[in-house]
Design brief:
The structure is a homodimer of 346-residue chains. By secondary structure, chain A is of the alpha/beta class. Chain A is 48% helix and 16% strand.
């Protein structure tokens, strides 16, 4: 297999360019099947590389003169800033000069660029962002967690199908359990979107649909793949983050409240830390934008070296597993299925 | 002031009739301004009362021969089971024989009954369920948390207005901070519903609108009143519950993993318990269905004696504070505001 070529946004995220450059160096050291193009301010990126003492040829600097800021309106930014790291990286994927693009920058710009520059696999209506979230049983895929705020039933069906392929290959779980995010277990529950989507998921032969999953059952591992619109996905992701942060703050404060509790804290510290480590979301890198002709991965704005490194290695795995080819043939089957369904409804 | 008359569903919830009867007895003992009508199976309710040794006249049993089950389709149940505790209780409020109705039974039946039997305050388009959720700073009102799965912008405006009145009076906080649940802080973020609602909230003179609140900032107390559709509200409520349960399970397991951690656990136990007690949602009783001509309160299906008692006392406070009169005049002002807004748009 040839090297997987990853175009990496060296200017994206709170910790750029240090974290992306360090992540790139760590990734090519860990996996010799990876080549990284570092896109960004030439001087800044080269400074970081020499600071880290990297001199190999698995990393190449691609100078860019512009940067898309987090708060910029995405459509305008993508169409105007042709020499930004995001637009340049996406264009490399489009023209076959790179296989993947990874960025911790503006989500909006990445979503727009992915669709407009990289382009969708034939049949894919909207690419969703899929995020692996830690649970008591391992990891579940929350899809869509950021791309399509107002979704349609058929989009959700495709999210379920693409998510299934990704999860099955990436996590090595046969026939992963797909569930729709809902307010109750019964089929008649939900908002209009869920009620219309439910029968589509139930009828699809491409997935192992197990029904509804309530938000309450997500962290205990109630489903492998949780299908939802991006507004709801954001609620799940951010509520998870906020609640965890609150509980850790409250517990920490409580443990520091007296000499007695401080001694207790010393005794439990190590065990507690290792238990909570299972809930570290950084393990699998970023969230792929599925259904594109190449691969685009969005990592957290706060992503550090490890998360960036894992996102790069994730790209390698994505190609090694032929996930895009599988999405392509699934979309063909899905088109047949929808055609049949429409004929039946006539 | 005359006694507040509360019709209590003695058959609703997982712990009925024990918990409702015990909650009623506790409530009338704690507040002599309350009278409770216990609606349900006569023999079962009287058995419980005599088991508790209650012989006073602040509780009256209203025999009902039917019960609405949790899984029953709500509309059919409300129209057919005329002698159920829910339909009887709602009718008592409608006919002025009771001021409030409290139930831990079927949410669907309570929502339908509230609208169809008790009826809405003039001008109210849809009554929302408002739930007080614990945060690091106290309690926030999540509204709508269960009634309207697919909402419209003007409904959300009314949720914000009614929620403000409820929170300001009930929690004693002047000009509480109202925020719309959103995926980011910027005004252009959100799904279609949020984008259309935002300018309405911003223009309303009846509330102290502070903009968007992200799900991540809810548990730390980012807003006093969080306005959303009921689907999103359910995600927040259930994700809160699920994440908290997961973390407590993981911590407990970690504390029991060795002799050393067990000793540590003994030292921190008391402090930790008292810190976590601040996150007990039972303190304020159930969730009121706001905007009805009377008051309808839905408590958790698993509500025990204390939660039922608090829900009954909550009814007393609701009337003592004249919340419904304030909602009535706010709705009049709101109708004027919408009229003006429509004229301006022409």
């Amino acid at each position: 297999m040839e090297k997987i070529r990853v175009a990496l946004d060296a200017m994206g995220g709170d910790l750029a360019p240090q974290a992306p450059v360090a992540g790139a160096v760590a990734a090519v050291k860990e996996n010799s099947g990876v080549k990284v193009f570092l896109l960004g301010n030439e001087a800044a990126v080269k400074d970081e590389l020499s600071r880290l003492g990297y001199t190999g040829d698995a990393i190449e600097v691609v100078p860019c003169t512009e940067t898309i800021e987090m708060a910029e309106p995405p459509v305008a930014a993508i169409s105007k800033k042709k020499d930004s790291s995001i637009v340049r990286g996406m264009n490399m994927v489009r023209h076959g000069e790179a296989d993947c693009f990874v960025s911790a920058g503006s989500t909006g710009a990445i979503l727009v660029g992915g669709q407009v520059i990289v382009g969708r696999v034939k049949g894919v209506q909207r690419p969703p962002l899929g995020s692996l979230i830690p649970t008591e049983k391992g990891f579940s895929l929350l899809i869509d967690c950021g791309a399509n705020m107002d979704a349609r039933p058929q989009w959700l069906l495709q999210f379920a199908e693409m998510g299934s392929i990704y999860y099955e290959n990436f996590m090595g779980v046969k026939k992963p359990r797909v569930a729709i995010l809902n307010v109750g277990a019964e089929e008649e529950k939900g908002n209009a979107l869920v009620k219309e989507t439910f029968p589509l998921l139930k009828a699809s032969e491409n997935i192992n649909f197990v029904g509804s999953v309530e938000a309450r059952d997500i962290t205990s591992g109630g489903a492998d793949i949780i299908v939802c619109d991006a507004f709801s996905g954001n609620m799940i992701l951010k509520m998870y983050e906020g609640t965890a942060a609150t509980f850790l703050r409250v517990i920490k404060k409580s443990l520091m409240s007296s000499l007695k509790t401080k001694i207790g804290a010393l005794l439990i510290q190590k065990s507690l830390k290792s238990s909570l480590k299972a809930f570290d979301a950084k393990k699998y890198g970023g969230a792929p934008l599925l259904g594109l002709k190449g691969l685009v991965v969005k990592t957290h704005g706060s992503a550090g070296e490890v998360e960036i490194k894992n996102s790069i290695l994730q790209c390698h795995q994505f190609y090694a597993l032929n996930i895009n080819e599988q999405i392509r043939s699934c979309m063909e089957a899905e088109a047949e299925f929808m055609k049949k369904l429409r004929q039946e409804q006539k």
